[in-house]
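Exercise 4. Each item below gives a protein and its sequence. For each, produce the structure-token representation.

Item: methenyltetrahydrofolate cyclohydrolase (Mannheimia haemolytica).
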Amino acid sequence: MIEAILPHKDVDGFHPYNVGRLSQRIPTLRPCTPYGVMKLLETTGVDLYGQHAVIVGASNIVGRPMALELLLGGCTVTVTHRFTKDLEHHVRQADILVVAVASLNLFPGVVKDGAIVIDVGINVEQTAN
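Answer:
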């Protein structure tokens, strides 16, 4: 269905043409959430070159395009997913951690000191009424 949208009208950046351009390092329209994360990282003033970025979640909507954006920014990138073995090991290594899964309190006490953590997962917390 996404291919029915003209690439230049794909404001979400999900059309295969736009994803391909991002992977070729010549982005035009970019997926909003990953691009927003990059803009947020810019505000920290941290030099991204050589930083180890770990992404938790490999979706086509956030995880994979996030990896491409971070690569463009000069990061070394690790993408994890539901089948990743020893996920905590990867999280401990992260200078930048982008969590793109719906899970509350996934890594208590695991993230290293000084790491930048950005959680873009949609979480619903149940409260008793």
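Check: Residues 1-30 form one domain.
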